[in-house]
Specification:
three-stranded antiparallel β-sheet; elongated; about 240 residues; binds ligand BJW; about 30% helix; alpha/beta
Length: about 240
């Protein structure tokens, strides 16, 4: 990591993926024991799948929602370290997560963008209203806003759909001086391209992951191991340099 001017700290953008929640008990997607080893993307994670068989897609997200709300699922030291970093970082800060779980919020993160949506929210395709929803959804679920039925869907971003808050993310990446990618395989765009955008902004780029990601060579600094260990250690080292 290059010298850090504590009186003028770089704007910090952090990107997280499924790997940060693995040790909290939530599955990743592309690991050998991951979600895509059990279900096909085309069956559950595209708008076409939802149009073809909404109950199949609802069942997939209902099961994951029940899992997330179950006892024993809680933020791990990786999530907590990022909440502490947000609190103590003396400069601009944005945490962008691809995860639809709420473990960053439960750990205390607030400057947070859920670019692929949120499992505990539902959206009405008729009136566009977004509501918090912790129970199961079905094609018969009525929208609490317009009372219409048949339009409720999980508030998540499927393949072929535009991720949320891209303008805010792009603006943060343009200002960014330090970019840290955590627990993501780098397979899914546009998130996989953020490191290149950060490099264009002359940011220092850091990868924290269990193993090298698809774009590992684009990171100037790399640390490999479980997120619950390497994220707190990285945050500690970084904050020490701001004091
Ligand atoms: C640990 C660990 C531990 C394990 N500690 N680490 C051809 C070329 C380029 C792009 C495209 C293309 N064809 C189509 C596209 C676009 C497409 C895309 O990228 N496809 C690729 C497959 C090629 N993307 C889209 O369609 C996106 N929209 C879009 O592009 O809109 C147009 C646009 C244009 C221009 C600008 C902006 C937009 C939408 C993507 C939607 C992704 N949706 C999903 C599912 C929905 C939510 C859900 O159900 O949860 O999001 S797919 C799934 O993958 C999920 C994740 O958020 C996403 C990323 O996965 P992630 O987080 O990286 O997980 P894994 O499992 O892949 O990796 C985990 C990592 O953790 C691994 O490396 C492990 O080693 C590590 N790990 N344990 C630390 N303990």
């Amino acid at each position: 990591m290059p010298e850090l001017d504590a009186s003028n700290p770089p704007a910090l953008v952090i990107l997280t993926g499924a790997g940060i929640s693995k040790e909290s008990g939530l599955d990743t997607f592309r690991d050998a024991d991951g979600i895509w080893a059990r279900v096909r993307i085309e069956d559950v994670a595209t708008p076409e799948a939802f149009a073809r068989d909404p109950e199949r897609v609802h069942a997939f997200y209902n099961a994951r929602r029940r899992g997330l709300c179950g006892a024993g699922i809680a933020p791990n030291p990786g999530h907590r370290a990022l909440a502490r970093l947000e609190q103590d970082w003396p400069g601009e800060f944005l945490l962008v997560t691809q995860n639809i779980d709420d473990l960053h919020e439960r750990a205390g993160s607030a400057k947070l963008v859920h670019m692929h949506g949120e499992l505990l929210k539902a959206r009405c395709e008729r009136c566009d209203a977004v509501h918090r929803h912790e129970g199961d959804l079905s094609a018969a679920t009525a929208c609490p806003g317009c009372a219409g039925r048949g339009g409720i869907r999980p508030h998540v971003v499927w393949f072929g759909e535009m991720p949320f808050e891209m303008e805010r993310i792009d603006a943060a990446l343009r200002r960014c001086g330090l970019f840290v990618s955590i627990g993501t395989s780098g397979n899914v765009y546009p998130a996989a391209g953020f490191v290149q955008q950060a490099l264009l902004s002359r940011a220092h780029t850091v990868e924290l992951n269990l193993e090298p990601s698809e774009g590992a060579s684009l990171f100037r600094e790399r640390h490999y191991g479980p997120a619950s260990e390497i994220v707190p250690a990285f945050v500690e080292r970084l904050l020490r340099r701001t004091r």
